[in-house]
Amino acid sequence: MGSECKVHQLHAAGDSDGGGPGAVAPFVAKTFHMVSDPSTNAVVRWGDAGNTFLVLDPAAFSDFLLPSYFKHRNFASFVRQLNTYGFRKVDPDRWEFAHESFLRGQAQLLPRIVRKKKKASGRELCEEGEEVRGTIEAVQRLRDEQRGMEEELQAMDQRLRTAESRPGQMMAFLSKLADDPGVVLRAMLAKKEELSAAGNDGPDPCKRRRIGADGGRDIFTELDLDPWRVFERK
Questions:
Q1: Average pLDDT of the chain, as a whole number
Q2: How far is CA 187 from CA 116, 143, 219, in A?
Q3: CB atoms closer than 10 angstroms to residue 65
Q4: What is the per-residue pLDDT for 179?
Q5: Taking 90 as the threshold, does the pLDDT of residue 63 lie above it?
Q6: What residues form DSSP beta bridges with 97?
Q7: According to the model, what pLDDT value does residue 24 have?
Q8: For the ranges 59-63, 151-155, 227-231, which has the lowest average pLDDT?
Q9: Checking DSSP bridges between strand 88-89 and strand 53-55, what pairing results, if any?
Q10: Residues facing residue 98 across a β-bridge
């Protein structure tokens, strides 16, 4: 808490004197406050040693934290700003950044973090461009993976709903069948008439295999019948 108060004091001093000695750049102050906020630890937090910070969920970071602190949703722009202030990416496999003066609980060091003065060489600009492109591609992959997971969950939910409804449908059908045992035979004969009218006599319904005789196919599958339409023939 004390370090956050110190950040606000240094930031206020920078606002009042136009960025003189002891001032903290607004970008640096906001980043320090964001990383230090324990309520956002699931998205961004300090590293275990307190000398780095990690963005654990770039998608949520872009969608929620960046608009709150920086009024935009561009993760690549945030990384570019970090580079401008001398931060470096310390782990190629995750979004972990470090600066020698960006340390947990050490807000008094923040005035040392200043924007780079020298003009970047062509090679540096090329490397920065490649890193930004890599950042954009990584975020897009994460979004695509998240979208794919959401679609898969929706499909699973639909399959579960369908599976849950089948026992009830079967019980209702069996109840109707008990009330009218002759309905299946009438349906078979009606199907036979339909096939004959279409010029395809088809196999004799009396020679059909019994329900389940072929390892799971029922009589309605054999006859290409909708069991619910069977009762419309009464």
A1: 78
A2: 84, 52, 11
A3: 22
A4: 77
A5: yes
A6: 53, 89
A7: 93
A8: 227-231
A9: unpaired
A10: 88
Domains of the chain: 2-117 (1.10.10.10), 180-234 (no CATH)
How many Cβ atoms sit within 10 Å of the Cβ of residue 110? 26
DSSP-based three-state secondary structure for 94: coil
Higher per-residue pLDDT: 72 or 185: 72
Q: Name which of 74, 72, 80, 68 is nearest 37 in CA terms.
A: 68
CA torsion, ordered 109, 115, 120, 123, to nearest 10 deg: 50
Phi then psi dihedrals of residue 233, to 5 deg: -85, -5
Over residues 174-220, the pLDDT tens digits come to: 777 777 777 677 777 887 888 888 776 555 544 544 444 444 445 55
Residue 9: how many CB atoms within 10 A of its CB?
A: 14
DSSP string, 7-20: HHHHHHHHHHHTS-
Residue in this structure with the two tokens 């002891």, named with its chain if needed: 22
Within the chain, residue ranges assigned H as helices are 2-17, 26-36, 58-60, 66-70, 75-84, 122-179, 183-197, 219-223, 227-230
C-beta separation of 72 from 66 below 8 A: yes
Tokens 């309520």 -> residue: 39
What separation in angstroms does the CA of 108 have from each of 9, 100, 143? 10, 13, 37
Rounded Cα distance, 53 and 105, in Å: 13
Is pLDDT at 37 greater than 80 in this prediction? yes
CA 122-125-130 angle, to 5 degrees, is 125
Rounded to the nearest 10°, the torsion over CA 176, 182, 187, 192 is: 170
